[in-house]
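Recap for those who missed Tuesday's class. We walked through two folding examples back to back. For each one, the amino acid string is listed first and its predicted structure tokens come directly after. Nothing is annotated here on purpose, so try labeling regions yourself before you check the end of the notes.
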Amino acid sequence: MVTNFHKSEAEMVKKYLIWPIRLFLYLIAISIICFYSFCLILTTDFGSKQTSKLLFGDNVSFEDISIEPSLLGMKLDIKGFSFLGAATFSGDRINLEINFLNSLIGKVIYIPSLELYNSEVKLNEGSTSEESTQPDIYINELSIINLKAGNIEFNKLELNNFLSKAEEIGFAFNDLNIDLPGSINSLDQFNGRGYFSEDKLFLNIDSNEALIDFTFYDAPSRFKNLEGIIEIDLNNDFSIPFAKLSAGDADRIIKSSFKYNDSFLLELWVEGNQSDVINLIPSTADNVKFFLKDSNFKSNNIDLLLSFTEIDNESNFNIAMKAQDGFLTLSELDLATKSMNLYIDNSSLRIFGDELELPNIELGKFYLSRKLIDDTNYKLIFNDFNNFAIEFSDEGILKSINGKIPTLDPNFKVSFNENRILLNADEVYFDFNILDNYEVINGGFKVYPSGFNSNYFSLDSEQMSSFEFNFNDLELSNFNANFGLLNSSQNPNRNSNLEFAEFNFSLKNSYINFKDNNMGFGGLVKITGKDISYTDSTFTIDALRVLSLIDIRSRLVNILNADFDKLDQDNFFINSLSGEFFADSAGYANINNLNLNFDVGEAEIMGTISSELESFDTFDLEMSFNSTLSQNIPWYVAILGGFPAAAGAVVVTEVLEDGINQIAETKYGISGSADNLIVETRQ
């Protein structure tokens, strides 16, 4: 019983399952034979033409076509083709594959891949959908090599999900590179989706990074996270009616719009740093670009608006920028401000700065300008600083300085006039050229003055004179020069009773600054002189009055020699002097040595002079006096000599005591104030 049951089951499987499978396989085999037989017919010239007409109707014409079967469709190689649809596509060669199954399912001509070589797109002027029937076409991967559409050229175009339906085309693109005419050379590395309708191409951009090569920039502009829309009108060759793009990352944000037809207009807003400013300046203003780079322009917070227009090959641009915490270095002058506004166009550069502060002075607002249409210099004006103005070239070479430096002392004035500096102290003045010979150093300039003029001084032209001028500190430093004091014959207008045959002094490493609107000075002074005389009453410098103490012995000898011209008790006479001392505006002087030669001896003075109530009014000096007399000095000589009251108590006693024939060396201490000198014998 069991055996018969299994035999009956096997017969049923054979009867009802095996034969249907065999029949299905037979049908497949017949279909394959028929399909390849059909394909064989298609490979003929007649079959190819009929297949082309069946698929594309009258929309395609060609010089040669070959067809090969594929797994689910066929492969076509068309040469010298022309396709009439929303636009006319023509080219040297086209390779494509058609999937019949997907075509039936999607009710479109489904093309998995298509390669197009050396093609051109032309608009069908005056054509309508009634004149030709265009099939719907879907292309999964479209590769186009060398495509020209109007004035636009594509070297390589990779499109995905290309759909042509009626007179409209849609597609996705990656790494799109387009060569454009006019003010934009190319659009590179663009990703997004495209849409073609009514002779217009719309590009919806969404790129991680893209390049736009504007003709007025030296290099393509790079944009990260670029988004926006570009409308391209292919009528009348080419135009961009509308384009709006934005980009941004952690360093900057960019928003732009542009359009192009008979003219080109670009508007660009940027929030970024100084590199963005420099890169966005058109190449027509390279001198401005170089200036900003050389001046070390910096700002990490910049708002910039650029407007650029080009009409008939004539271009114009405007840049308005606000920089927070801006910084510039101009001819070694550091300009750091809380806020800086820059305006740049074809003809000029203008920079306005607020709250400018140097280390030792507040300069307030400043204004920097330059005309770009000629070879004019840059001009820097300090508005709150007596309109102090500096002009310099592209290379940073100073051309002129004009203005005054304010000081708290009304009797002291410093002013600049073109290439000269003028200093006034009461009735004394001197000026000289500072720009004919100078070199740039850290923080300023080293000047070798020339053309020296003064009503009191002359400058030794045989010796090299120099000083350093620091803009940031407003200081004349390392002043080294040799001066001569003009006598009455050289300067008759000098109203002074000081007379001399020669009076010279040199400054070594001296300085003059203008900190806090006040003048400060100091330095080492070396002094020499011959045949010097002065009337004491004409001098208000107390330190010089002290020197009259040592004039006693000279007076005695002059009386004995009957030299009565030297007997005026208000006059002071020195045959020669030499020495050096350090002095500064704080009212301090350190006398290293001061040697004076008289008719009867020599004196050497050392010590310090300081200031208590008035400048240089307090003394701490030591005076050594060496002298020889050939005979005793009677009392009447002392009386006729007219000794200064301050020296009488000590010096007269020393001189007249016991009829001395020889005095080898005597030392005195001079201390106290100018009104109350204390003179003590120390030897």
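Example two. Treat it independently of the first, because the proteins are unrelated.
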Amino acid sequence: MNDLLVPLVKEKHQSINHIYATHAEELGCSRRTLYSYIDACVFDVRNGDLRRAVRYKKRKKATKSSARDRSYRQGHNYEDFLKYLKEHPGTNVVEMDCVEGKKGEGKTLLTLTFRNCNLMLMFLLEHQDRECVLKVLTHLEKILGQESFKRLFPIILTDGGSEFSAREEMETFCDGSPSTVVFYCDPYSFWQKGACEKNHEYIRYIIQKGNSFADLNDKKVQLMINHINNEKMNAEAAISDTAVQFAAMFESMDDSYMQARAADVRDVSDRILGILSGAVQGGIASDVPVLLAADDLAPSETVQLDKSKILGFITAGGSGSSHTAILARTMGIPAIVGVGDALKPEYEGRSCIIDGATGNVVIDPDDMTRDYLLKKREEQLRLQRLLETLKGQPNVTKDGKSIRIYCNIGSPDDVHAVQVNDGGGIGLFRSEFLYLNSPDYPTEDQQFEAYKKVLADMGGKEVIIRTLDIGADKQIGYFNLPKEDNPAMGMRALRICLNRPEIFKTQLRALYRASAFGKLGIMFPMVTSVWEVREAKKYCEEVKRDLKAEGIPFAEDVQVGIMIETPAAAIMSDRLAKEVDFFSCGTNDLTQYTLACDRQNNDLGRFYDPHNPAVLRLLKMVTENAHKNGIWVGICGELGADLTLTETFLAIGVDELSVSPRAVLPLRNAVRMTDTRESAPRLLAAIDAEYPETL
């Protein structure tokens, strides 16, 4: 490989990208690996060998200009820039700026970023002044030629720093002919040259702000810019890649002690990454609770929010049925999602009131609005206090029909909310958030401790834990799932577990070990066929045999159930009921797949209707098939907390409703106020009507 690289780099001056593009098969490694080897001096070449020696030519001396003189900006401000682009559409823009070193030092980095391709040039200046900037432009004129220079630099956009004040000199070549057109951003408007500022982040990851540039030279600058342009890899990425390589090396060793050191490598890497990125606990750098506004939040970001610093959050994207919104309800965080363009950057730092019940966002409320909303909040708190009197009361209708009310949780920390709100058990523990919170696959022991804690804390009440359900909008990098055009229909949930049994069996071992500490139920998500259930149960039996052989205790009476969240599972529920101990209907996905409506797409709000008779008919059919085969059926989707459907679910015969902890008492109140003798015949007739309307 060395014999291949040396002549290509040193003699033909080919870039790493070019070499890899033409000799990938001969190299036998990835482009990133090749770059790492070169950088580590594994071969007789360095990236510095790509550098071409150049000489600078002095331009004519710039005219004197006071630092306070802004006349050079006249006719060349940002408004003029936008007008020029409108008159010359498609013209390439080069953003120019300086990156300063330690305060008081002379050395500075001059950067030129091409907007059309995000390529950056970087030059070391001895002083941050006009003469040094002109020296660089003269150098570019010499090595490119005037025609190429004009083609590459038709427009330069920069800020109003004194080093860029020689506009007329920058706009002409050494012979006086026109070279480029220079425009200036508005003061304190760094976003107007956003491409340049983004690339400066890569520089700051390598050389932290405030550090000296004294030891920089042209060679080091060339190496740095090659690294940034070729890899777009900051310090965090480099550390992460290195950690992965070393962790894999330790894991491949035969010695168990050395294998365990892989976790140490990852832990140290995570700590360093936190320091480099300035990360704060919960992602909120504030001393007081705030309303968080964001374009969107992934489920993994939501679950890591520090609830002590969050009053609520607003997102431009997402929908009320997304996993992010569901998590917010589980965590008791007021949230308004899918507001679109109504969320504006200028709202940052302003006073705001959100109403999670109505979806209203009030920016800078006046005294009358503030008083009204505060009174509304007080009334809600008063009603909540009334609901508190229902704690300890049975979930029984006026005509004596009973139903179990359980809770949905996403972490062991949520058990407290279940207890405070008097939940009868846990109908859905989303185990995937153990994976979302981890930089790597959680170990068997890590999972065991989490499941054990939940079961023990629930004191013998039923706890149903859903096996891993990632994919769709819940993506985890270290799973290395292929990019899919339609991930909701792709590799997710039980499909991943059956394709990667080593992950599945690790979780099952942890679950069965934890079953010795409480009343456990195991639930498989995204089932579509009988063979999937039988395959999953086969792994359960294998794990139980292994645990028994190892002398590890577990409960023999663990119930195994499935989620009904696909039309296929609903239609086949008569057959599936013979294979399991219970059904739990995931109405969020069931609605999505039945109505062919993406639950993440807020524009489909009026089409994504869980009240649609097609969805209700499926739930009725599933319940009937479950009872015919002697098993119970519950609802663990968000529809379970919809009080407008409580009577319908009771009429259908649903045995259990699992909701967010805060919804337990309102749901109990609705159940206790219902008389199914009056409502059931009417509601069942409506579902089965020849031309049913949405209920």
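Answers for example two:
The first helix runs from residue 2 to 11.
The longest strand covers residues 93-100.
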